[in-house]
Write a structure and sequence with these properties.
Layout: H1 10-17, E1 23-26, H2 34-42, E2 49-57, E3 62-68, H3 75-82, E4 87-89, H4 92-99, E5 116-120, E6 129-135, E7 138-142, H5 144-151, E8 154-156
Parallel strand pairs: 2-6, 3-5, 5-8
Antiparallel strand pairs: 1-7, 2-3, 2-4, 6-7
């Protein structure tokens, strides 16, 4: 693989400014390939590839939920946990307005607006995670402790 140009995204700038320890892991992005493609291209377990999902509660307030790549979010459990009547995924354009990132490249770091961040609790116990670095086809590999220290997400148990 030749030398690739990795864009200086708001996420990468945020991670550097925050003193986070991370390694950028570029891969060949495939439209609608999601974490399955990222895991395959990087040779890692899909459970370690963390999705950054943008949702809204019944009051229209946006939030981010971080979830294992091989799991789904129970929106009913999430709503109950956060005290909302319902929680639903944002339409791509709405998610992009909230975060400043294109869907497929959404990172919880350096978002356009400050959003509430929730994380599936057992992500904290993984030896390492790979999470979007703000551009399609670029993940940041780090210890979960780096994400927790920097973002202080609320831990929830809402995986399906």
């Amino acid at each position: 693989m030749g030398k690739e140009k990795i864009p200086a995204t708001p996420a990468i700038l945020f991670m550097k400014k925050s003193g986070m320890e991370f390694t950028l892991r570029p891969y060949r992005y495939e439209e609608h390939g999601g974490t399955t493609v990222a895991a395959r291209e990087l040779g890692v377990d899909e459970n370690m590839v963390i999705k950054t999902l943008v949702m809204e509660d019944d009051g229209g307030k946006p939030l981010i939920i971080l979830m294992h790549g091989d799991k789904k979010v129970s929106t009913k459990s999430l709503a109950r946990t956060i005290g909302a009547k319902s929680v639903n995924p944002c339409e791509p354009g709405v998610a992009e307005r909230h975060t400043g990132y294109r869907v497929g490249g959404t990172s919880p770091f350096g978002t356009k607006h400050s959003l509430r961040i929730y994380m599936e609790e057992d992500i904290a116990f993984l030896p390492k995670i790979l999470i979007n670095a703000g551009s399609r086809g670029v993940l940041a590999e780090m210890a979960p402790a780096e994400l927790i220290r920097t973002l202080n997400p609320v831990r929830v148990k809402v995986a399906l």
